[in-house]
Design brief:
Blueprint lengths: L23 H10 L5 E6 L4 H12 L3 E7 L1 H10 L8 E4 L3 H13 L5 E4 L4 H8 L13 E7 L7 E4 L9 H17 L6 E5 L10 H14 L7 E6 L1 H5 L1 H6 L12 E3 L3 H13 L4 E7 L5 E2 L7 H26 L1
Helix pairs in contact: 1-11, 2-11, 4-5
């Protein structure tokens, strides 16, 4: 079956059997983002080189139109020190990072931005403003995070969720986590995904509650409570991403061995999985927060500019799809 690049997905031995050019999957995302209108993006507290450069380079590529929010003097100093031209971008002066988060969310609520991008502030500062019950960006959908991973030894762009926000999500929260990831996958133009609900084993047992929730999520998909993807679970990690492992266990499904979205049982498992892929498999990692009024580019302050660019590109494609859907609904 063709994967997102149009080539055939290997039926066996996916992990470790071949290497794919570093950054190739991200390059495709960025190329797609260049084909749509630049997204109005509120960049919150870009007060170090990586976050400011990421915003400036994304703007220079034509994929975002940034509004920089933070202490003017500090942002301008970073720009001077690192030779970044920011004169043509709107800069909203606020005193500190907490105020920048509040102001950034306010600008989105006022319709001045269709994306939010985290700068050099702490994640909890930004998310506190985003999740405020009175002035935040909540919707009826649970807010969740998706890692968008380019693993050199795997042929597909791999999504891992949720490894950053929901610590021990219940079944209802997991339904939203799965739907958020599917929506992102489809709206950035990757097709209808194969979704593996991960656990420690591939059989349902009352001794491991995550296996029961995995089975329930699959049944919810059968009943139309989750749409847009093909689900299977519980699946152990090896059965989800390696066709040989699935074959040995006698697992026959359209997902086993070929997963494109990995849904983890909880944040601890997800965080360890993502970091294993980054440090042992040399994966690149981008990330988005979904379920709010707008997509949020939420990356680590230690992330590379390339990772930030890929996160930005995915958010731009997601925002463009939402813009298109809104126009169609209004027509």
């Amino acid at each position: 079956m063709p994967n997102e690049s149009g080539s055939e997905t290997r039926p066996v031995g996916t992990i470790g059997s071949a290497s794919h050019p570093p950054g190739a999957k991200y390059d495709r995302l960025i190329a797609k983002a260049k084909e749509v209108a630049a997204a109005k993006t509120v960049v919150v507290h870009p007060c170090d080189e990586t976050s400011l450069r990421g915003a400036v380079e994304a703007a220079e590529l034509g994929i975002i139109s940034p509004i920089l929010v933070g202490p003017r003097a500090k942002i301008e100093q970073v720009a001077r020190e690192h030779h970044l031209a920011i004169d043509k971008y709107e800069l909203v002066d606020v005193a500190h990072s907490d105020a920048a988060a509040t102001k950034g969310v306010e600008l989105v609520r006022e319709g001045k931005g269709e994306m939010l991008m985290k700068g050099s502030l702490h994640t909890d500062e930004l998310m506190r403003a985003v999740t405020s019950s009175s002035t935040g960006l909540r919707t009826a959908r649970r807010i969740s995070h998706v890692f968008i991973m380019d693993v050199p030894t795997y042929p597909e762009t791999l999504f891992v969720t949720d490894a950053a926000i929901n610590i021990f999500p219940d079944l209802e929260a997991k339904r939203d986590i799965v739907q958020n990831a599917i929506d992102l996958y489809t709206q950035v133009g990757l097709g209808n995904p194969r979704v593996a609900i991960l656990s420690a084993v591939e059989t349902v047992t009352s001794k491991i509650p995550s296996t029961i929730e995995a089975a329930a999520l699959c049944k919810m998909a059968d009943r139309g409570q989750i749409t847009g993807g093909t689900l299977d679970g519980p699946l152990a990690f090896d059965n989800a991403i390696d066709a040989d492992a699935a074959k040995i266990k006698g697992i026959h499904s359209p997902v086993a061995g070929r997963a494109q979205i990995l849904v983890v049982p909880d944040l601890e498992a997800g965080n360890m999985l993502a970091k294993n892929l980054i440090f042992l498999a040399k994966a690149d990692s981008a990330g988005l927060v979904l379920g709010a009024r707008v997509p949020i580019v939420l990356t680590s302050r230690a992330d590379s500019v390339r990772s930030r660019m890929a996160s930005c590109a995915a958010a731009v494609l997601y925002a463009a799809a939402r813009r298109r859907d809104a126009k169609m609904a209004a027509a």
